[in-house]
Each structure stands twice: as structure tokens, then as C-alpha cells.
Amino acid sequence: MNDRTWRWLTILLAAVILGGCGASPDKQGAELESKPHLDSRRPSQPGEMRSYLAAKNIPNGDIYLQDGLLYVNVVALNERIEAEIAELFVPGSYKLMNVKYTIQQLEAAQQLLLDQNLHEELNIYSSGIDVIGNKI
To answer: What pTM was estimated for this model as a whole?
Structure first.
């Protein structure tokens, strides 16, 4: 497995572990859970969101969790994509961000820096992908 796969497996594992932590629901919460839900939308989860983006071939600059919210970097975000995601996931459980580069483009640029030894030419000690800023 490559580094990217390990990175996402680690993030997914952390999300699963953290998702199981927390206080037990109180009596009122238990009563609410026993009632049928009329809304078929669900809170966004990193794995589900990533699978949805891949299945729909939506170019994206990756996703990340920040302050309890799932941020989704979408290249050329438009109203159609916003509406499709809103049909499946509970609004407020995610935030869509319009970005310029896909994660694959960022990874390719990072690899180019390494392959052509551009770190030395540009006098850069190191570099990394900034998913939040959608840049290297």
C-alpha cells in the first residue's frame, strides 16, 4: 500500500474510534432514537463522503475534519453538486469548499518536486501538501 492509502486508513480508523467515544445518550435521547426518522439524509462521515465523490467522479482536493465539521474540497463546485450532496447528507455536518486543484494534482506536483530535485534548485528544505489551503 502506498503512503496515501495508509494515511486514509489511519484517518478512517481514528474516525471510527473517536465516533465510538462519548457519553451515553440520556433517556430523552434514547426515546428520540427509537422513533422512526423521516429524513433519509445522514450526517456526513469521511469514508461515506469519499466513496460518494469517487462514485460520482466529482474532482476533489480531498476532505478533512476540523472543529468537528467535515470539510470537502470540491474542484469547480457548483449548485448541482451542492444539491446532490445535500440530498444525501445532513446540512451542517459538512462544509463544501471550492478549490482549484485535485488531491491527485497536488500529489503529482509534490512528486515532481522530488523527482526533479527541485527542492535544491528552489532552495527549499522540504515541502508538503496543505489540504486545507489546497496547495503545496
So the answer is: 0.65
